[in-house]
Design a protein that fits this description.
The protein is α/β, with parallel strands linked by helices and 225 residues long. It has eight helices and twelve strands. It has two domains: 118 residues, Rossmann fold, CATH 3.40.50; 96 residues, Arc Repressor Mutant, subunit A (Orthogonal Bundle), CATH 1.10.10.10. Strand 3, helix 3 and strand 4 form a beta-alpha-beta unit.
């Protein structure tokens, strides 16, 4: 499980972001200031895989944390910046930050940035598996019981979303948001129904009685227990 250190002093952002990232399968530790972040990283840096770092902190600033971390560790850093703050963006990148995202940001965009950086650092899980189903995210291939399955781009992304959230009930609204972000265009409720039907036809032994992507009546869909 990817362990993220969140350095942010806005309690609302910490609460909401922690809840969202945990639902996405990440482990989160949060601190609210420069001194706390540096003290934790001095002794526990090995337990973290990535740092989400707010530039403006009530106590200190994110630049000092990045400046201390980058020369001594291989931890990726994503800066959270105020919208349109070009100075912060340039300064952060000059200090070695791997990426930045401006507030307010779309949560799905942040997830995409995190996955991209984790792949770049070789820390991402490259093969996702469930009950004979296997997706190699490096090669972009999917197989069932050793036989390759050809999926469209949105079918593939929908499957990855299920695989990354095994055991969780995924409401239709959440799936729509995920597909919308991926496609870059509006995906409506009918389109979602069509894609789930097509995906089941390709991965299920009996699409009329699915065992991989189950319908949870009145709540959404679920892969795994």
């Amino acid at each position: 499980m990817t362990h993220i250190l969140l350095v942010e002093d806005d309690k609302g952002i910490v609460t909401n972001l922690t809840e969202f990232l945990q639902k996405e399968g990440f482990s989160i530790t949060s601190v609210d200031g420069q001194a706390k972040a540096l003290a934790l990283l001095e002794t526990e840096s090995a337990q973290f895989d990535l740092i989400l770092l707010d530039v403006s902190l009530a106590e200190g600033n994110g630049f000092a944390v990045c400046r201390a971390v980058k020369p001594t560790t291989d931890l990726p850093v994503i800066f959270l910046t105020a919208s349109g703050d070009e100075y912060s963006v340039v300064t952060g990148l000059d200090l070695g930050a791997d990426d930045y995202i401006a507030k307010p940001f779309r949560p799905r965009e942040l997830i995409s940035r995190i996955h991209s950086i984790m792949r770049r650092y070789g820390k991402a899980t490259t093969v996702l598996e469930y009950n004979g189903l296997s997706a190699d995210v490096t090669r972009g291939t999917v197989s069932k019981d050793g036989r390759e399955i050809i999926l469209s781009a949105l079918e593939y992304r929908l499957l990855l979303y299920f695989l990354n959230n095994k055991g969780m009930i995924l409401p239709r609204a959440r799936l729509l948001e995920a597909l919308w972000d991926i496609a870059g265009e509006f995906v409506n409720d009918n389109t979602l129904t069509v894609y789930i039907k097509r995906l089941r036809e390709k991965i299920e032994a009996d699409p009329q009685n699915p065992t991989l992507i189950k319908t949870v009546r009145g709540m959404g869909y679920k892969m795994g227990d």
